[in-house]
Every structure is written in C-alpha cells, then in structure tokens.
Specification:
single chain; 225 residues; alpha/beta; Rossmann fold; 8 strands; globular; binds guanosine-5'-triphosphate; binds magnesium ion
Length: 225
C-alpha cells in the first residue's frame, strides 16, 4: 500500500497470479467492461501477437470518500508463461493482496501447483509472506469438459483458509465476486495493520457500496463451501 498523507491518497495494489492461459487477463477485461468509463482508468495490456500477456495489465479504480480521501485500486495480472518468472516477481512487488486464478481443467493440475509454488517463492523474494498475504482463489473455466468436479473443488476449499470462487471468466461469471472478495479481504488486513480508520476518513462500507455500484449486480459467482 502506498499512503500519501499530504494529498490524502491511498493506493492499494492487487495482483492476479496463476498459470499460463488460466484467464487472468480475461477477468480484468470483463471488470473493465463493467466500469463506467468516467470512473476507470485505462486498461493497459501488453500482449504478444498470440494474445499472451508479455508484461502485465493494469486496471486502476478511483474513489473519493465522503471525508475527501482518495483511494486508488490498481489491479495487475502477471504473465503466466513459465519463461516470464522475472516479470512475475517484479509485478508482485508491494502487492497488498493476491487473487490466484487456477485453471479447472484436470490437465492443468500440475501447472496450477507449480504456479502456486512459484507464487510463494516470488512473494518471499519481495519480502512478503504467502501465509500472511490476503489471498483468494478462483477456479476458472468451469464451462469446459474434463474439469475437476464441484465436489473436488469444494473439498479443496474446505482444507484451506482462502475463499475459493468458481468462475467462467469469458462469460463474466464469478469475476465480480472474486474481485470484491479479494478487495474486502485486503482492505480488512490493511485497516488492521495501518490503523486506517483512525488515520483517514474512509470507511470500508462506503468503498464496498461504491465498488458494488460500479461493478456489482451482474455475474456474481458462488463461493465454494
Ligand atoms: N472456455 C473458457 N475459456 C476461457 C475462460 N477464461 C478465459 N478463457 C480463454 O483462455 C485463453 C487465455 O485467457 P487469458 O485471459 O489470456 O489468460 P491469462 O491467464 O491472462 O494468460 P497469460 O497472460 O498467458 O498468463 C483465452 O483464449 C480466453 O478466451 C473461461 O472461463 N472458459
Ligand atoms: Mg494474461
């Protein structure tokens, strides 16, 4: 988190991490279509010719609280291709919360696991700790055949502390729920850590209403139990 006390501005950084082609950029693109053009920043994407993320995408949200505090939420995605690990590490610098976008296909189990391991390593290289970083998990591509069953994902979800969302990002299903879930978990952690509500006139409830007004309503995904 970056805090600019003079300008009363807080910047929160969220990162979508996960294996190649799991749908990180698709999640961002869908969020972008939901936001009123006056309230969103540009979606920056650096893609290669075959639509793979080469660097990152960035979707900034802006909000000003009743108390005059400006909040910026920057949402990044990392490039999932194995060769871009150095870029992933850089994008994770200063991350306040991470959304792990997993691919539900059975064929992608190993890739998900490898990516998750690299997330822990890259956070550690940035002085961050996977165990204490706000984290949500999304199992995307629920529309495809040969995916891990709902029961299997529910069982995985019940083992871990992280909220698990099921999604079909190309149809916008589960995209908003994942983002709002990650933001709210991240904000709660930051509030505690930095005593934000005492230092700044900005309330979690007003941010949540703002975000829900902006992107809520459509495409809520269910949370696995
Ligand atoms: N069937 C299906 N395809 C999806 C879904 N979400 C994304 N895709 C497709 O999967 C491919 C990869 O999606 P991206 O969003 O570019 O994946 P990424 O995680 O950003 O990939 P990298 O940037 O290479 O790490 C694209 O062809 C998407 O249209 C989904 O829910 N279902
Ligand atoms: Mg991408």
């Amino acid at each position: 988190m970056q805090v600019d006390v003079f300008h009363k501005q807080i910047t929160v950084k969220l990162v979508y991490y996960g294996p190649a082609l799991s749908g990180k950029t698709t999640n961002l693109q869908h969020l972008h279509t939901l936001v009123d053009p006056g309230l969103r920043g540009n979606l920056m994407a650096l893609e290669t010719r075959d639509d793979r993320t080469l660097f990152f995408d960035l979707l900034p949200f802006h909000f000003t609280s009743a108390g005059g505090v400006r909040l910026r939420i920057k949402l990044f995605t990392v490039p999932g291709q194995v060769i871009h690990n150095a870029t992933r590490r850089i994008v994770l610098q200063g991350a306040d919360g991470v959304g792990f976008i997993a691919d539900s296909q059975v064929s992608q189990i190993d890739n998900n696991a490898q990516s998750f391991t690299s997330l822990g390593e890259n956070l550690a290289d940035n002085g961050l700790n996977l165990a204490t970083t706000p984290l949500v998990i999304q199992f995307n591509k629920r529309d495809l055949p040969a995916i891990r069953s709902d029961d299997e994902i529910d069982a995985l979800a019940s083992l871990g502390r992280e909220p698990v969302y099921k999604a079909v990002a190309i149809q916008g299903i589960g995209v908003v729920g994942t983002f709002l879930g990650l933001f709210s978990m991240t904000w709660t952690a930051l509030e505690k850590q930095h005593d934000l509500s005492k230092r700044f006139e900005i309330k979690a409830s007003e941010i949540t209403s703002f975000l829900e007004g902006m992107i809520g309503g459509s495409g809520r995904g269910e949370v696995a139990t």
